[in-house]
Design brief:
Helices cover about 20% and strands about 25% of the residues. The chain contains three helices and five strands, in the order E-H-E-E-H-E-H-E.
């Protein structure tokens, strides 16, 4: 991980075992997908199984780009003419935009301007920002 970095991923969770309907509605293939009933961890068989399937589309931008650019990249997919996130709402349990942000010193900020937040709100997606401290080597 770079000293200053950001990522964003659209996550869609469903009780259904197959997630292909999500790709059809949104118009892109997932970066990652996990099936309901699969082990939570292949390294720890006692960890249990997934209770839901998940479909994850990660921003294709490099992690050196700003968080707002990553969010914009995901929103552009959802705003495409063929994308129809609303049509799958009855088949999913939740939709969110999971973001990661890390600053060089641990003291840092990011800006999400009002127009970007309005676009996100229009999609009715929850925003989660996970903050990461700088690595030990940054000190």
């Amino acid at each position: 991980m770079a000293e200053k970095c950001a990522e964003a991923a659209l996550r869609v969770f469903t009780p259904e075992p197959d997630v292909e309907f999500i790709s059809s509605c949104i118009g892109v293939s997932p970066t990652e997908r996990y099936r309901k009933g699969d082990p939570i961890s292949t390294k720890n068989p006692g960890a249990g199984v997934l209770r839901e399937s998940s479909w994850i589309y990660k921003s294709p931008l490099d992690d050196s780009r700003s968080l707002s650019e990553h969010i914009d990249a995901v929103l552009r997919v959802l705003e495409a003419p063929d994308a129809d996130l609303q049509s799958l709402r009855s088949r999913v349990s939740s939709v969110d935009l999971f973001c990661m942000f890390s600053s060089e010193s641990g003291q840092g900020s990011m800006e999400l301007d009002a127009p970007l937040l309005q676009r996100l709100a229009k999609q009715q997606i929850d925003l989660i920002i996970d903050l990461y401290p700088p690595s030990e080597s940054a000190s």
